[in-house]
Design brief:
The complex is a heterodimer of chains A (337) and B (259). Chain A has two domains: 188 residues, HUPs (Rossmann fold, 3-Layer(aba) Sandwich); 117 residues, Rossmann fold (3-Layer(aba) Sandwich). Chain A is 27% helix and 29% strand. In chain A, strands 7-11-6-1-4-5-12 form a seven-stranded parallel β-sheet, with helices on both faces. In chain A, helix 3 packs across helix 4 and helix 5 crosses helix 8. Chain B is 27% helix and 28% strand. A nine-stranded mixed β-sheet of chain B has the order 9-8-7-10-6-1-4-5-11, with helices on both faces. In chain B, strands 2-3 form a two-stranded antiparallel ribbon. The chains are: A alpha/beta (337), B alpha/beta (259).
Chain lengths: 337, 259
């Protein structure tokens, strides 16, 4: 049987799968539909979650998102800071349940864990993909995975010559959808697997995160570009004020972070967050590809830049050739009235 | 104590040049030591300066030109430098690269205690090679490390950055640590450091020197291959707003918020 395996992560707070896991399950379902159209091949979609957890919420959504089967493997020895037990738990199940494709979320932990798994399967792994398709090559169905490379100046589409064909996929790129009914096969496995490669957790320090930042889930993003810079950096504060009043989310570009103006948690782009907002407005954003890759899934993109040839104007729906600073001042005057 | 630092020569991605045919013009681009690898090297030198008898081996795979970054590593304080170069290595993906590097370490630095790497390389940005190497060497590994608090022959204590917290972790050696953040006390080598470095010779090894079959290295040994590479295309035709900028922007926000 042809099979796509989705390696799922847990959202510990909700005790349910992470949002990226649902995104990948829906994408796996869509890939299966694509394979059907290309050469009438059907794929079985299996979602797997290995963690130190007895049961999880909202299993119906796993099935309605596209999975045919959900496997929960409980192992009390799995720890967040050490992937060797997680890896062995998965590999132990996988050796009797092989697959053609394995999809992993490209979160920081999984970008470490996924290669630990694929090296042991002696197969390839495409990192941090932003697009997935099946293609026919010499009449064989192959997974083609596209990712930005060279500081996102270049897009590379990569295929794997060996099975399983594996990829890590950036969160927030694909949309989770209800694609079928809530029925599917659920199995729970208890695992006792241990690993002698111990890493001792001495302490866990929570970082100050008083303000709510949710770039990936925000409906409206106001993005500060380096074009807002001035001697006292007042326009970044002003834009934050507008975001507060209009209850929208502020974000920024890498350059703004690199110059120490805003914290990296606000960064949108290759090394920051992705957005699929209903509305994105770029204030003085130049439009570097590494930034735009993470913005282009927004429904409506508005760009303000003094330079009529700014790169961002090639990606936006509405362009304003003008000074974003002046416009910020005017907006503030209007909303304070 | 023996430390291996894996380094890579990368093109300067902030100064990418294109040919007329819209291909990357690699020959026109300046190359440099991958920044994350330099941070890893800085930590290794810091540890070297704390203890007696610490050796720091800078290891790279690349063309002959990659000797430049090994010279730099020696000037910064590395005590040994190894270049793995061979036409048969060309086209290696992360799996094949990890096999080559880990085989070379097994053979030429078998008594290593610590392997330090950068979290990512600026050109490929896969971040997969370090974890893959650790698996092949059968040692524990940690990534997203923002500080090495302490490291000696037996133990390393590191700070790992998570999304919303920082873990302080203790690992027994041998282990691999992937560095994500710049070390504050980094320094550039001086001219006399380069002069001193000239006394060390760079060891050069090829495919026949490491114990791997031809089917495991280079293009043959790489399960992944680039199907096509292209410059992202511009697709949209923007509608220009010509007046009442602030009002229009506010209208966008308000109408979206009301939907």
């Amino acid at each position: 049987m042809n099979k796509i395996t989705v390696f799922c992560e847990l959202n510990k707070e909700k005790n349910a799968l992470s949002s990226c896991s649902y995104e990948l399950i829906t994408k796996a379902y869509e890939l299966s539909k694509q394979a059907q159209e290309l050469n009438n091949t059907e794929f079985f979609i299996e979602a797997i979650c290995c963690d130190n957890v007895e049961n999880i919420e909202n299993k119906e959504k796993i099935f309605s998102s596209g999975a045919n089967k959900f496997v929960l493997i409980e192992n009390k020895n799995i720890e967040n800071h050490n992937f060797d037990v997680l890896k062995d738990t998965f590999l132990n199940y996988y050796k009797d349940n092989k697959s053609d494709v394995i999809l992993f979320p490209a979160t920081a932990p999984m970008r470490h864990c996924a290669p630990c798994i694929t090296v042991n399967l002696d197969c390839g792994l495409v990192a941090d993909c932003i697009d997935l398709n099946f293609i026919l090559k010499d009449e064989n169905l192959m997974l083609s995975a596209t990712r930005p490379t060279f500081g996102s100046e270049l897009m590379a589409t990569i295929i794997s010559k060996k099975l399983p064909q594996c990829a890590t996929i950036r969160p927030g790129i694909f949309k989770n959808k209800t694609v079928k009914d809530e029925n599917g096969e659920f199995i729970k496995i208890q695992s006792e697997i241990e690993n002698n490669k111990k890493i001792k957790l001495i302490s866990n320090i929570l970082q100050n995160n008083n303000d709510e930042i949710n770039i990936e889930g925000a409906e409206i993003i106001l993005c500060a570009g380096y074009g807002l810079n001035s001697a006292n950096r007042e326009y970044f504060k002003k834009l934050e004020k507008i975001a507060q009043i209009t209850k929208t989310q502020i974000g920024c570009t890498r350059k703004v972070v690199d110059f120490g103006i805003m914290d990296s948690k606000y960064q949108i782009g290759l090394t920051g967050s992705n957005t699929k907002a209903q509305l994105y407005i770029g204030f003085g954003v130049a439009g570097a590809i590494q930034h735009m890759c993470s913005v282009k899934n927004s429904k409506k993109i508005v760009a303000i830049n003094t330079d009529a040839d700014a790169e961002i104007f090639n990606y936006c729906d509405y362009k304003i050739v003008g000074d974003a600073k002046k416009i910020i001042d005017e907006i503030l005057t209007q909303i304070e009235q | 104590m023996n430390i291996v630092v894996c380094v890579k020569q990368v093109p300067d991605v902030d100064n990418v040049k294109w040919t007329k045919e819209n291909n990357l013009d690699r020959s026109a681009m300046l190359t440099k030591l991958n920044p994350h690898d330099e941070w890893a090297l800085d930590y290794a030198i810091k540890i070297k300066n704390q203890f007696k008898n610490v050796s720091v081996t800078a290891l790279t795979m690349g063309p002959n030109q990659a000797k430049e970054i090994l010279d730099y590593a020696l000037a910064k304080g590395a005590t040994r430098a190894i270049l793995l170069t061979d036409k048969l290595f060309a086209g290696s993906d992360t799996l094949a690269t990890a096999k080559i590097l880990s085989s070379a370490i097994k053979k030429y630095v078998p008594d290593f205690d610590l392997i330090l790497t950068g979290q990512i390389a600026q050109d490929g940005d896969t971040a997969q090679t370090p974890a893959s190497m650790a698996q092949l060497l059968d040692i524990k590994s940690v990534s997203n490390i923002i500080d090495i608090k302490n490291a000696d022959k037996n133990t390393a204590i590191v700070a790992k950055k998570n999304k919303e917290s920082i873990d302080i972790l203790e690992l027994s050696t041998p282990c691999l640590i992937a560095i994500q953040q710049e070390m504050k006390e980094s320094h550039l080598p001086k001219i006399e450091d380069y002069a001193q470095a000239q006394k060390s010779t760079i060891e050069v090894y090829g495919a026949q020197d490491i114990d791997l079959d031809k089917s495991e290295i280079g293009i043959l040994g790489s399960p992944t291959m680039v199907y096509k590479a292209y410059r992202p295309e511009v697709t949209k035709n923007a509608q220009e707003i010509k007046e009442d900028f602030a009002k229009e922007v506010l209208n966008f926000i308000r109408s979206c918020a009301n939907e």
